[in-house]
Amino acid sequence: MKAKDLGIAVVGSGRIGTLRARLAAKHPAVRFLAVSDKEPANAKALAELAGADFHSADNDEVIARPEVNAVFVSTPEGEHAAPVCKALELGKAVMVEKPLALSLNDAEAILKTLKATGGTLRVGYSRRFKECFLRAKEQMNHGRLGKVSGAVIAGHEPCGVVAAAGSAVDERTARVGDRIMVHHYTGCGTCAHCRTGWSQMCVQGSTVYGATGHGAHAPYMKVPAHTLVALPDELRFSTGAAISCGTGTAYQALRRMNLTGGDTVAVVGQGPVGLSATQLAAAMGARVIALDVSAERLKRAEEFGADVLLDPKNAVAEAYNVSGVPETFIIDRQGRIVAHHSGAFDWSQPAIRDALEELLKDNKG
After folding, report:
1. pLDDT digits (tens, 9 = 90+) for 213-244
2. CB–CB of 72/11 below 8 Å?
3. How big is the chain by its Cα radius of gyration, in Å?
4. For the ranges 180-189, 224-233, 302-311, 350-359, which has the lowest average pLDDT?
5. Domains and CATH numbers, the chain
6. Cβ burial 163-193 (10 Å sphere, 16+ → b, else e)
7. Phi/psi at 199 (nearest 5 deg)?
């Protein structure tokens, strides 16, 4: 086989393996294609679909084929190590799907083999080339996402017990054994934003624990004492972790709105933050309109106290208010309520007619 010719082995015949094999089969430089899967029927089916030259239920047999000089490892994430190491030991170039491994031991075994063989290994983080991630990288390069110094431990909703305190930490701030939550931002401490409690807006660049600073997915976490918030004994750690980020975000938003029991609030999206907002707003006595495209999430929103449930996929949604009076909502493609009529759907109502005509105009565009 000529050096410029490619002999490809695709290990794993699932969804991604199928994609890799079909693309390889169409590439003009590929002169040989082999596929494998621990389920013989899957390997055979993919071989027939992609027109592979060889298939097997034995990964090692496929990798060892003399025609093969490059290997795609598309096995389940916890089974990457064995085929990657085998291919590297045989001098084959390897691309493995993300993540590299699911355990530290497997990752270390792969890296040890890579170092010993001097082989070629790439991890398939193809999303790094998507525009949204390129923009994020640009923001990071300009320091707008905080200080990034290298690999970090994830976990941005910290909650736990103080294990140790520095000599300069006053006991009124933190004592060993205190149950605490962590506000997962810190900044320079001296700019106007930091001094008014908005450290995430620090002009020097904030540290975001779990993103640009080591987070809580580890036995211990080191943070400045000023980021600690007391966790009352009656609250569980899981509750404290939620408050540390999503639930706290929703609560502060409702506070800044000066929400009262006489208000009606629409919560667009019933994920963790949205459900928190729904639950808290209902507890504050407000009337809550919950919007989501997921029936499961809308059901959960109802359990959390939502009065009205709307699916943004429907341009016109009808519901009943707490007094039993029908109501009509007009919803745009972003899930925003653009018109509301206290009554059943009535085309003659100017607000409803105008909103629908505007939506139709947008859909044509």
Report:
1. 899 999 999 999 999 999 999 999 999 998 88
2. yes
3. 28
4. 350-359
5. 6-124 (3.40.50.720), 145-165+173-244 (3.90.180.10), 258-364 (3.40.50)
6. eebeeebeeeebeeeeebbbbbbbbeeeeeb
7. -65, -25
